[in-house]
Automatic annotation (TrEMBL):
Locations listed in the record: Cell membrane
Membrane topology of the entry: Multi-pass membrane protein
UniProt protein name: Thiosulfate reductase cytochrome b subunit
InterPro entries xref list: Cyt_b561_bac/Ni-Hgenase, Di-haem_cyt_TM, Hydrogenase_cytochrome, Ni-dep_Hydgase_cyt-B
Organism (species): Thiomonas bhubaneswarensis
Record carries keyword Transmembrane helix: yes
Amino acid sequence: MTRTKRVYLFKRFERFWHWSQAALIITLMLSGFRIHGLYDLGVDFLTALRIHTVAAWSLVVLWVFAIFWHFTTGEWKQYIPTFDKIFLIARHYAFGIFRGEEHPYHVIPTRKHNPLQRLAYLWVKLMINPIIWISGIWLLFFADWGAWPVWQQWGISLQTVAWAHTIGAYMMLIFFIVHVYLTTTGHTPLAHIKAMIVGYEHEPVHHHPRDQAAPKAVENA
Ligand code: HEM
């Protein structure tokens, strides 16, 4: 039996932000791929477009609050990239995890993402999201300024922008699949998901003098 201790990782706003963002992005992916013509799900094109636009604006509003929260609480620092132990962690996901080895990274509230998570979330925030947002806003306002001759001169046509938006959507889909898989790799398959719902994670306790100094915080899993 692994001994674990409860660690408070995800504050209330953070959990609200995470799950509403997830719901909106899932809605955007489902309606977006319908607009793209991958399937029709019994929803007509214009309805899918309307759902897509409302979900996108809702996500913009949520993001304004989330950015404000990250900067006022200092939580943005959790996303500063680091390559510390990165190979050990990649090795763990490639092999160690299938041999029941313990995760090489130990979470504490002030650094709750392992270096691979930091890089993945930063990639979403600085790469995937800007591609999707810039091309999405461009498509939305295409009739107003998206088709100006200057863009044509620069070789940016409706097709280029729609292509960038679709590439961004597939990048998000890949992130989504890998992310959901990795969230099931805690000490039980639902442990991380439960932590993102209730805020507390059960972290394994290590035989380190620092852990033994605080026996009251230790529970049995
Ligand atoms: C595409 C939609 C999603 C995006 C953009 C997203 C993004 C994120 C981000 C940025 C974090 C770090 C948040 C923080 O530490 O404050 C996170 C953590 C997490 N997400 Fe998602 N997420 C998405 C969907 C999901 C879904 C559908 C699930 C569950 C099935 C999920 C489960 C989790 C869990 C359990 C964590 C905590 C992981 C940990 O640090 O141990 N996410 N997600």
